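Side project, low priority. Logging it here so it doesn't get lost.
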Amino acid sequence: MLTPRTHHLIELALEEDIGLGDVTSRAIFPANHCSRAVIDAKQDLVLCGLNIAARVFSRVDPTLKSTFLARDGDLVKKGAAVLRIEGPTAALLAAERTALNFLQRLSGIATQARRFTDAVRGTGVRLVDTRKTTPGWRALEKYAVRTGGCYNHRGSLGEHVLIKDNHIAAAGSLMKAVLRCRAAAPHAAKIEVEAKKLAEVKEALRAGADIILLDNMTPAQVRAAVVAIAGRAVVEVSGGVRLETVGDYALRGVDIISIGALTHSVAAVDLSLELKPFSKRR
């Protein structure tokens, strides 16, 4: 994930945090003072963002050396070390917060994704994310979702047609919205339609929708919609699905469950950096 966009995010984060320098470390440590630090887990977690954290350290000072002690996607137990960094103390401490911010946020998403995946394991239902992501972080957060074992929905408005309630309201009807999209979209494009009640499900079927998104329905309503669809369209469930309820929606006939909670309200996991001086440069 070390793309040009990621490098740009790192630059923005470092400018925000140490654009004026680190007056504390600069005052305490001479240039030849070096240390070794280890980032370790303070809780069980799924690791994500290790390469990005290492890049932050090397961007602050190319002489900082990072050694991976784990890999993205690893289930890391509390107390386990994931990254060792060696080099100039002042640079190491200047990079610490930014590196941890990336690592904690992305590992939090990956850990959340693994919890959701475990909750529906064996059902055959695919769990996907949404566009409810941190502005500018979408590619990274969707990578973290995949790292945790879930999948990605569309990454932008340009990837496929998804007709939602506001489109329908502005177009005048679901049928009109579908017909206009069918006429304008590329020949291979899928047409997905959001439906909030069974009557809209039936209208979407008459309009020839390829995918029907069952929005904010109860499990009982989803069952009725699945019966009505009868395999004629891909079935997606969305709207307020939580970890405690996702199993209730992983029903036979449901293909996809999209979950905003994979990204929009995830808590950062607890990782910390511990430092020990070990030498001075000569």
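Brief comment: The chain has two domains: 4-116+267-280, 151-258.
Revisit when time allows.
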